[in-house]
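Hi R.,

Here's the chain you asked about this morning:
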Amino acid sequence: MMTRKLLLVFAVIVVACFHRAVSSSQADFDALIVNGRVVDGTGNPWFVADVAIKNGRIVEIGKLDPKRAARVIDAKGLIVAPGFIDVHTHIEGGITEFPAAENFVRMGVTSVVTGNCGSSALNLNEWFSRLETLGISINVASLIGHNTVRRAGMNGDFDRPPTPEELQKMRELVAQAMRDGAVGLSTGLEYIPGTYGKTDEIVELAKTSAEFGGLYATHMRDEGEFVERSIRESIEIGEKANCLVEISHFKISSRKRWGASVQTIKLVEDARARGQQVTVDQYLYPASSTGIGILFPSWVFDGGAEKARERMTDPATRARVRAGLIEKAKQRGVPDFSFAVVANHSANQSFNGKSIAEITKLNRQKNDLNSQAEQIIEIQLAGGAQMVLHSMADADVDRIFRQPFTMIASDSGIHNPDSPSIPHPRGYGNNARALGVYTRDKKLVGLEEAIRKMTSLPAGTFKLWDRGLIRPGMAADVVIFDEKAVADRATFEQPKQYPTGIHFVVVNGQVVIENDKHTSLKSGQILRGRGAGTGLVK
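And the predicted structure, written out as tokens:
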């Protein structure tokens, strides 16, 4: 009797499951987003429409019958927009450990470009394959990094120009990366070893990128006192290499130069008027974040890490290093190092969240510039630290945001929410901040323009042709949010806080964020550049 009942129950379950499967397979749409205000990514005004998804693609837009869909998402009172594209990230070190990439998708980001500032995986094919095997929740594209290529092509001996043979090796490495699917070449000309690369060297490598349809993305040599010179070099490289130039985290990082965004914007406008394609990206905070090494003069690191250690431990040279640190601070227009806050110092986590000035006072019971410079040297010798540098003016950030060629990018990695680090809040709040503070509150641009900056503009710049628009045939990357409620919660003191008001995030047709929670789905894809698999050898 019991066996008969169990068989009956099992039969009912099987029939029910079969019925649901048939219903789903017979539906015209896998999902239908209804009643939303569609902001399609073009910059055009919003309109009310339903958006239908099938097999990871947008297939229809209009007034559609919910009965045709296996699943209906009611977006009444909400904005339906293309998934946001973050063109400047550093996810290499975190995505294999945290493939859900929650700090990105919770901001509405569905695609990222990594490999920025000259640093990337060298073997992109191997790295892409690893991510595909692992499964990821976001789409990933990558640049090939100049610093990475320079190290490999010059066998670690890089504080000099390359020989013709070494330059050819570097070109071959760039070409291989482009065939593997890189979307362009990146430089970090403020960092070792990129700082030793001359303009002509970068031009040759950018030419190789352009031959495969790639662009040139740059962290310039200087973003403060000599920022105009750096912009001119960036534009020159694009003109000589015949490729688009993307200037990363466009800013004025020296207090002495606050207000200079008027001039730097004019340089970009003039280049664009001449026909040179130039775009920029920015994060919407008056502070940057990078390693503590950026505070040192570059000569300290000539010859590599061991030589740098020798200079910092030798008493005579150490005095010169201190003087160099103080001189660089003066170039920023700051009276001391209170602008520099430790985000993560592995050797002493109690430093996290404190400025160099605060740490110096606690450790040394004095706080003069020499003592602060000594503290910086000791932190570097103990393994270095990730820093947050408060050095920008809100007026410059606002002015840059208003420009039609400006994209929104976090310059962030994937964060472990349980680590003791206190990272820059941009990795948790940047896109929500663009929609809330800068669009709704400050009204610097309209909603449609803000969304264009995060969707079709980056998609077109990086030639991600099937992303960035709500349009039939495009990939079903969609974000659904409340225009009135969207807000960043991350602060410099408490950065690991997800934004509010972003209710659904769809990646390639799969709902990854639902009612503010990650579904654990891994529907992300690798987005390869135009040169992928071409076999083209230049």
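The radius of gyration is 25 Å.

Let me know if you need anything else.
M.
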